[in-house]
Amino acid sequence: MEPLPVVWFIAIAVLWIGYLLLEGFDLGVGMHMSFSTRSERDRRVMLNTIGPVWDGNEVWLITAGAAMFAAFPAWYASLFSTLYVPLTIALVGLIVRAVGIEYRGKIHTEGWRTFWTWMIGLGSLIVAFCIGAALALTSIGLPIDGNGDRVGGPFVWLTPTAVLGGLAVVGFSLAHAATFLGLKADGPVRERAGRFAARWAPLCLVPAALWAIWVQIAHGGSILAWVFIALAVVSAVLGWVAARKRNEGYAFVGYAGFGLFGAGAIFAGMFPLVLPSTVDSAFDLTVWNAANGSYTLGVMTVVAVVALPVILLYQAWSYWIFRKRVTPGMIPEAHIVLPAVLRAR
């Protein structure tokens, strides 16, 4: 057995985990904007906490999908063709959310801003739910035949597994965003986020914990996966204790640790499967039968070794530059943003 397919399975797992951790609080902030406050200034504080980084975080999603396509084309083809409905809905959610973030401040009317606030929240909810559903289905299984084709109609994916995965990512995003806002915002936003992290965040993490345990039950579960689950539980407890003490830094690390170890447990528990078949285990896709050729994986490995450190350093630098809290005093009064042509006159 060649090591490169295993290396790239681990790499793809890292990319997905990175996406869930970084984009998770982005999506959660978008959802919090819709229900946690009606204050325009507070909503703008929340939006400004993710303003410099939200689009960069989405690169992890693109990179994870591209890595799946290049390293495991059979996995990519079967998963994306079977789940074209939820993935298309997720794409619509990404577009709506991006448009909302960019256009919300273009016109200063209450109706305009309220509409786009709800679009940001709805788009964030759709993306989180659909991505969670897709990842849950690839970890538990889909009805595919020996050719990797879907067995059943276009909505065969809509199962309790998909719902659990969707709720898991939505819940984690809300909890993760609460600790992020406590760390990055000040004033009323910080206070509300702290209360949410202390009171409701543990409940939000329950679906993710059930998903991780379900994967172990479905596939036998490895010792490493159970160790990750134990570490995830410990991290969540420490994060909750820190949130109750209003220690925002440790609360953020604790809930992020839950996401890191919980997602790690899911990928470790499904290995060496990449897409189990619920029709017949003989049709399962694994890291061995779904991988690309050795030459392709070798070239990709060289490129990744050179490019990945540069990308990580740049993203770490951007977070460092924008590390300060966003306070209400930093937010100017709402005003009309005129097009450049009109400003020049």
Report on the architecture of this protein.
This protein has 345 residues and is mostly helical. It has a single domain, classed as Formate dehydrogenase/DMSO reductase fold (Up-down Bundle). Helix content is 74%, strand content 1%. The protein has 15 helices and two strands. It has helices at residues 3-35, 40-50, 54-57, 59-71, 73-82, 84-103, 110-140, 160-184, 188-199, 201-204, 206-219, 223-244, 248-270, 294-321, 340-343; strands at residues 273-275, 285-286. Strands 1-2 form a two-stranded antiparallel ribbon. Helix 11 packs parallel to helix 13. The mean pLDDT is 91. It holds the Pfam family Cyt_bd_oxida_II. Keywords: Cell membrane, Electron transport, Heme, Iron, Membrane, Metal-binding, Transmembrane, Transmembrane helix, Transport. Belongs to the cytochrome ubiquinol oxidase subunit 2 family.
CATH topological fold name: Formate dehydrogenase/DMSO reductase fold
Helical content (DSSP H or I, runs of 4+): over 70%
Q: Tell me the number of strands.
A: 2
Per DSSP, what share of the residues sits in E-state strands of 2 or more residues?
Answer: under 5%
Radius of gyration: 21 Å
Order of secondary-structure elements:
HHHHHHHHHHHHHEEHH
For the sheet with most strands, the description reads: 2 strands, antiparallel
Enumerate how many helices there are, as a single number: 15
Average pLDDT metric: 91
For the biggest β-sheet, the strand order reads 1-2
What structural class results from the helix and strand content?
A: mainly alpha
Give start-end ranges of low-pLDDT stretches: none
Distance between the termini: 69 Å
Total tally of structural domains: 1
CATH top-level class: Mainly Alpha
Question: Assembly state here?
Answer: single chain
Shape designation:
globular
**CATH A-level architecture:** Up-down Bundle
